[in-house]
Amino acid sequence: MSASPENPNADFIVPHCEEAIGYLHSDDDLLIINKPAGLLSVPGRHPDNKDCLIRRVAEIYPSATIVHRLDMSTSGLMIIALHKDSHRALSRLFQDREIEKEYQAVVYGKLASIEGFIDLPLACDWPNRPRQELNFDYGKKAQTHYHHQGMTDDGHSKILLTPITGRSHQLRVHTASIGHPILGCEFYAHPAAKAAAGRLLLHASRLRFTHPYTGEMLDIQHDAEFVD
Q1: pTM to 2 decimals?
Q2: β-sheet bridge partners, residue 123
Q3: Could you say which DSSP state residue 61 is in?
């Protein structure tokens, strides 16, 4: 597969992201930040692809470590650990599916139903990685709820996606599988849907979980600009 901003390899230089990171919550144990679209979560393989979210955060919080990632083209909320114990505790919350996540997206065309549930197993498409594929033989369980939230002026659907599982590219593959790919998607959108937006219209808009140390219920929301 050829290199692209969606699929940077060792020879591809990612365009510099000018947009700043937003800091929405901070305490002694963790941060919740808003990652801009176009910024890598961790350094890329090319020596010129070192600018990334965790490096920028570490300039202010030197002990910061990554707990989970968003694709470069996906914007939105991420949790950053500030010490080793916090990293272990937060990783356990993700593993046990105790962190509720919601994503806002714009998908191609008009959905036939107001809400739905997609239960389709996913596996890596190894010859074309990092692409994923539906695979009923050895794919891992992947489940997503979706809820229609209105239409754009040009006839596409604004939706709220709630992943039950957290497979790679799950939301992209699931929406494409029901005939409504996310606008701007490099991997799974047909040409008209890919060309309908200048970026991937997918945004991690909400994180809700119990703080592993204070017991406080954190419920952080930040809407995408493209759903206004």
Answers
A1: 0.93
A2: 133
A3: -
Kindly report, residue by residue over 188-197, the tens digit of the pLDDT: 999 999 999 9
CA distance 187 to 125: 12
Distance separating alpha carbons of residues 51 and 68, to the nearest angstrom:
17
Helix (H, G, I), strand (E, B) or coil at 177: helix
Of 200, 197, 186, the C-alpha closest to 38 is: 200
Q: Where are the domains of the chain?
A: 22-227
Span 22-227 CATH architecture: 2-Layer Sandwich (3.30)
CA dist 184 → 106, 164, 205 (Å) = 9, 24, 18
What lies within 8 Å, CB to CB, of 170 at 6+ separation is 122, 132, 142, 144, 163
Which sequence positions are flagged as catalytic? 71
CA nearest to 27, candidates 72, 71, 90: 90
> Burial level of 103, CB count in 10 A (0-12/13-18/19+)?
buried
pLDDT tens digits for 174-188? 999 999 999 999 999
The b/e string for 17-50 (b: 16+ C-beta within 10 A; e otherwise) is beeebeeeeeeebbbbbbbbbbbbbeebeeeebe
pLDDT in tens, 68-114: 999 999 999 999 999 999 999 999 999 999 999 999 999 999 999 99
Two structure tokens written together for 136: 């009923």
